[in-house]
Amino acid sequence: MENSLVVKLRQMTGAGMMDCKTALEETGGDLEKAAEALRKKGIAKASKRGERETREGLVATYIHGNGKLGVMVEILCETDFVARNEEFKKFANDIAMHIAALNPLYLSPEDVPQEIVNKEKEIYAEEFAGSGKPQNIIDNIINGKLQKYFEEVCLLKQRYIKDEDTTIEDFVKHKIGVIGENVKIGRFARFEI
Known about the structure:
Helix 2 packs across helix 3 (about 30-50) and helix 3 (about 30-50) crosses helix 8 (about 170-180). Strand 3 and strand 4 form a beta hairpin. The chain is an alpha+beta fold. The protein has helices at about 5-15, 15-25, 30-50, 80-85, 85-100, 115-125, 135-155, 170-180; strands at about 55-65, 70-75, 160, 165, 185-190. The protein folds into 3 domains: about 5-50, Orthogonal Bundle (Helicase, Ruva Protein, domain 3); about 55-105 and about 155-190, Tetrahydropterin Synthase, Chain A (2-Layer Sandwich), CATH 3.30.479.20; about 115-150, Orthogonal Bundle (GTP Cyclohydrolase I, Chain A, domain 1). It starts with a helix and ends with a strand. It is globular and about 65 Å long. The chain contains 8 helices and 5 strands. It is about 55% helix and about 20% strand. It has a 3-stranded antiparallel β-sheet with strand order 1-2-5.
């Protein structure tokens, strides 16, 4: 396999040299297919690592240029070695910038208080009251609208600002594959004047 292709794939994906070489061999030198194959492998590896305990990490900060917007986010990992790694620090900074830009209110749908979920469902149900649609259809529409709401207010469900095809949840899984150990987003706070 041509070394320049291996290097290019490594730059695109952040995967190891041997993984890149293998992926290119498996896809007959097709860069795009190799990148997709590496991404799938990374997500598979990430789900295996997702149960490991995270006791180390760092707090990343981001202050927007005008000084009127700031973010603090806790990013957790398994070892202090990874917490000092440049790739990990860059990842933490990317998450902080994303929070500054999209202002999520919660980390995941499980963190949204039940009274807020109930209120949203009530609002959506009122929209279709008297519409004559069957209840099961209305329930499906309400669930779809609720998922859309979670995509707006929950960090892990939001579309990553640097890649609209990826959610933050998938971005974290990708980084777990690249970094090689479990990574989690902990708490975060966004301040704006």
